[in-house]
Amino acid sequence: RRVHGMNYIDIFQNHFKEVFPETYLVIATIIILLYAVSTTYRDLNGQSSAYSLKTHAATHAGRLAVLALSLTAALSVWQMPAAGGAAATIFNNVLIIDDLTIMVRTLILLCALSSILISFSFIEGQRINSFEYILLILFSTLSMLLMVSAYDIISTYLAIELQTLSFYVLAAFRRNNEFSTEAGLKYFVLGALSSGILLLGAAAIYGSTGITSFEELTKLLTFWSHEGSADVQIMSLGVILMLIAFLFKISAAPFHAWSPDIYEGAPTCVTAFFAITPKVAILSLLLRLCFCTFWDALASWEQIIIVCSLLSMVIGTFGAINQNRVKRLFAYSSIAHVLCV
Fold first, then answer.
1. Closest by alpha carbon to 211, among 141, 142, 154, 288?
2. Which pLDDT tens digit goes with each residue over 289-322?
3. Would you tell me how many other CB atoms lie within 10 Å of the CB of residue 71?
4. Average pLDDT, whole number, for the chain?
5. Residues 6+ apart with CB under 8 A from 74
6. Distance between CA atoms of 66 and 117, rounded to whole angstroms?
7. pLDDT at 113 over 70
8. Strands (E), the chain
9. How many degrees, rounded to 5, is the angle at CA 207 between CA 11 and CA 196?
10. What is the distance between the alpha carbons of residues 164 and 310, in angstroms, rounded to a whole number?
11. What is the pLDDT of residues 133-178, one digit of tens each?
């Protein structure tokens, strides 16, 4: 079942078959976008009120998104028995499809589906009358599906950036609310900082090894873990920086300060989406990195994970005691539990 080579016939026969759920979701998202835009302009020509036509487009886009996510989850579940415990690396080791990928991918789709379902009443009640809200959730879901199957530093970074770009807009979606605007701005600034740390770590790893593939890094670390050369030290620094960036993304202490403000300012349904779905994706990526790729460099990052876990439990638990707002309490609860996994 392992896929080798970059023969074009092989790509279309085997590689695209492995990412069929993601391919379907991309096509469905584009169709929903075209439908929503055409519906809006058709209603404008019919001289409907701006609010009613946008609400109409957002509602119908949401229903189509529920259908698209449901079918994508069904495709992912259908693909599960075919895996049979074997792993397939596709597109020249850029992506990997294994049991972990399929399981987490299905969970992400179900979480995104639940987020859209709880958004319908909020869209009408809070007058969020733009179909772009639904599309942003779909694009961020697509990026998380690619993230959990990423098997290369470059594909990992691109998937994370596609996710965060959608999240910046979702956090500030209530443009007339100053708290939401503040949340989006803070998320943008601090997200750019974490992305810079991730890039710095990736550059250190590539500069010392000349490798971006997780599989090749695993083989290399098996022999480098006991050496003390300068390249090994630079690579260890890169591993630490990448892990710090991921810990920042999941709001683990002491990189958690942005989380309560973002959760409070974002719309409630967006907060529910932020609190669960992206953390599932990044934790699965951390699981693959720590227990597969970076396992032989355990000495360089083990203490960081232990310290961050203890700090997250203490700060998250005691920080939640003084909170009198539900969403901030929710944020500190997620901080306390995120590294208990």
1. 154
2. 988 888 888 878 888 888 998 999 999 888 888 8
3. 15
4. 84
5. none
6. 7
7. yes
8. 88-90, 95-97
9. 85
10. 27
11. 889 999 999 999 999 999 999 999 999 999 999 999 998 887 778 8
Burial per residue of 88-108, b for 16 or more beta-carbon CB atoms within 10 angstroms, e otherwise: bbbbebbbbbbebbbbbbbbb
Q: What is the tally of helices (H) and strands (E) in the chain?
A: 15, 2
Query: Residue 274 and residue 118: Cα distance in Å, rounded?
Result: 14
Query: What CA–CA distances, in Å, run from 240 to 8, 120, 231, 300, 307?
Result: 37, 41, 14, 7, 13
Tokens 């942005």: give the residue: 258
Q: Is the pLDDT of residue 37 over 70?
A: yes
Position 243, amino acid: L
For residue 97, what are the β-bridge partners? Answer: 88
Q: Which residues contact 314 (CB under 8 A, 6 or more apart)?
A: 253
Q: Which two tokens stand for residue 141?
A: 């879901």
Dist. CA 328–CA 324, nearest whole Å = 8
Distance CA 220, CA 215 (A): 9
3-state SS, residue 1:
coil
Element (DSSP H or E) covering residue 13: none
Contacts of 265 (CB under 8 A, 6+ apart): 171, 172, 177, 179, 180, 181, 182, 183, 184, 186
Helix, strand and coil percent figures for the chain, each rounded to 5:
80, 5, 20
CB-count exposure of residue 333 (10 Å: 0-12, 13-18, 19+): middle
d(CA 158, CA 153): 9
pLDDT at position 50 is 47
C-alpha 199/C-alpha 197 separation (Å) is 5
* Token duo for residue 334: 């997620």
